[in-house]
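Quick sanity check, Malate dehydrogenase:
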Amino acid sequence: MTQAPVNVTVTGAAGQIGYALLFRIASGQLLGPDTPVKLRLLEIPQAVKAAEGTALELEDGAFPQLAGIDIFDDAKQAFAGANVALLVGARPRTKGMERADLLEANGGIFKPQGEAINAGAADDIRVLVVGNPANTNALIAQSHAPDVPAERFTAMTRLDHNRAVAQLAKKLDAPVGEVRKLTIWGNHSASQYPDIFHAEVAGRNAAEAVNDEKWLAEEFIPRVAKRGAEIIEARGASSAASAANAAIDHVHDWVLGTAEGDWTSMAIPSDGSYGVPEGLISSFPVVCKGGKYEIVQGLEISEFSRGRIDASVGELAEEREAVKKLGLI
Ligand SMILES: NC(=O)C1=CN([C@@H]2O[C@H](COP(=O)(O)OP(=O)(O)OC[C@H]3O[C@@H](n4cnc5c(N)ncnc54)[C@H](O)[C@@H]3O)[C@@H](O)[C@H]2O)C=CC1
Ligand SMILES: O=C([O-])CC(=O)C(=O)O
């Protein structure tokens, strides 16, 4: 390891995703085993002590890739020099809260974090927003970082992607490693559209192999889209280790590339491809190479898919209007 350490800022470090995520980063799974990392943890003042406890445990891991840990309750300091930023901390919805209240509460978090990224992050900063509502939180942060290229702000739909891969593999009784080219379109919400029409399983077209539109419409799509709620119901808490795993996958593939002959799903600022209004942070099929992502072009979109993509993208456009009205973007 002769390389200079990469600064990775993680917000919400004392939360449940943070706890699962930090050990994976420290062990070299985010950026590869040869890249040393320095962790910069951001928490609210009341949770700094808990983050310090996690830092003690990280130390006890004796990870050769971990070059240091700093803990902050100030965003400007936490993002100073950041090369990778994982924005996990967010305000969860509580009883009686309307969607607009949630957007407003999160605006109070993602606006100053966007400003802090703009002020002090490294030139090669890459941002992944995990905290919900992830797509629109990413839009808020991005709009307050005018000096950072817009495409560096992304939101996480990789958990949805991985969930869809697993469900499809199970249906076809195939190993997950045989599933390729699946796509999540739209918002990380129940309106998302997991698309298997271009997917392949063991080299065969997945939709043809499944050959069961009823299963697709009534089981697969709702199961993937509502998996978050299913986990909450079963575990009594929202997905944490699987969300951390997906965050690792997202950044790993963005920096180190997607596998040859495959693609992944990332929520990224739309360039207008596939009729998604420009600027919305919406999930697309992407290929990553040389540290950059590119939308997979030229896929044929059936009527079945079109309606579902439009519905999810419509929801994103409504969220954008709502945060505009609140003066958050
Ligand atoms: N995009 C996705 O696929 C998924 C997103 N999520 C979302 O990720 C977020 C985090 O989930 P958990 O870790 O389970 O929540 P958690 O409640 O266990 O942890 C959140 C942490 O964020 C901290 N925090 C709050 N405001 C902060 C701020 N301004 N700066 C820094 N830290 C702050 C809190 O103190 C807390 O420690 C939630 O919004 C959740 O809905 C969860 C699963 C999947
Ligand atoms: O549903 C939730 O609250 C957490 C989440 O985003 C997911 O598991 O996909």
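Posting the structure with no commentary besides this: The radius of gyration is 19 Å.
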